[in-house]
Write a structure and sequence with these properties.
Blueprint (H helix, E strand, L loop, with lengths): L7 H18 E8 L4 E7 L6 H12 L5 E5 L1 H9 L17 E2 L2 E3 L8 H7 L15 E7 L11
Parallel strand pairs: 1-6
Antiparallel strand pairs: 1-2, 3-5, 3-6, 4-5
Length: 154
């Protein structure tokens, strides 16, 4: 068996085919740290990924244990912050589920909740990051113990 060098065109063809396949059968997650730095990762759509698994994937991606994951409803967050002076002395509506922090909800580290079910239940917290016709990318905020410099994406 001999090893043949393939052309750059073949490389580009295979790369595009691989990326297209990934985009069709995986969720794309934009993992955004609280400093604004973000990276993408993917998880398979048709596997039984639990929220606990999600934490494991993100911790492995950033090589950082003991993180917290959050999502936010951008419309609710903007509306709340536009009117925060109106509610200075008002505690606002009581919420017991899910845990909230600064307009965000904490994704529970739960081995009994599937990621797909969580998205379906909290659809308003998972709007696409980019407009159609782009593939759907979901934003998840990552709180970790790392201290970052002013390094940020774009």
């Amino acid at each position: 068996m001999t090893t043949q060098t393939k052309s750059i065109e073949e490389f580009h063809y295979e790369s595009n085919r691989y990326i297209s396949n990934c985009l069709n059968n995986r969720y794309i997650l934009e993992l955004t740290k609280m400093c604004g730095y973000f990276e993408w990762t993917t998880i398979y759509k048709y596997q039984s990924i639990t929220l606990y698994d999600l934490y494991t994937i993100v911790e492995s991606h950033f090589q950082q244990p003991n993180i917290k994951l959050y999502v936010t409803n951008v419309k609710l967050y903007v509306h709340t912050h536009d009117h925060e002076h109106d509610h200075e002395h008002n505690q606002g509506p009581e919420t017991t589920e899910p845990e909230e922090e600064e307009g965000m909800i904490l994704i529970p580290k739960d081995n009994n909740i599937l990621f797909q079910s969580y998205i379906d239940t909290y659809r308003e917290f998972f709007p696409p990051v980019y407009p159609v016709p782009a593939n759907i990318v979901y934003k998840i905020y990552v709180e970790d113990r790392c201290k970052h410099s002013s390094r940020q994406n774009r």
